[in-house]
Amino acid sequence: MKDNDLGLYLGSERGSSMETVAKFKPDVEVLSDVEMLARRCVGLFVADAQKTIAQKEVFYLAISGGNTPRPFFNLLGQLPEAISLPWDHIHLFWVDERYVPSDSEASNYKLAADTFLKKVTYPNKTYTGSKPSTAISNRRRWLTRRLSALFSTCRKTNCRNST
Fold first, then answer.
1. How far apart are CA 146 and CA 149, in angstroms?
2. According to a count of CB atoms within 10 Å of the terminal CB, is the N or C end of the chain lower?
3. Could you tell me the residue ranges of all domains in the chain?
4. Would the CA dihedral through 5, 158, 148, 118 be positive or negative?
5. pTM of the predicted model, to two decimals?
6. What is the CATH number of domain 32-157?
């Protein structure tokens, strides 16, 4: 895998081949509580986002929902270092296998919107599908076209200035 391939990793210092990735030894950190874990995650996220944006002018983040990322999301909407990120260079992807309307209490998008998206300057570069009222098959086609266009541009420009 080349450094400019689209298979991006958090902490992308892992190397340039699958063999290198397989030999990667993770740093294990033990933190005292959920708050400390969330703060550490925000610190890593901010550092990686800043570094990647400086190099490629864009940062891609795939996020989940539920209770596990909630403390992290809350801090993204509270800590100055997270709020001040250049959010117009960040693309968010939801990794939710469920179809849940974005205004539902069960929606991962609603969780992100309520905890941090409404608190940062974020220009809706999210890849969740089209409007909730759209039929599933149409949503799939719409998202496939949108992602294909995004990553087609990325391959041509090394991910610079893609929107």
1. 5
2. C
3. 32-157
4. positive
5. 0.69
6. 3.40.50.1360
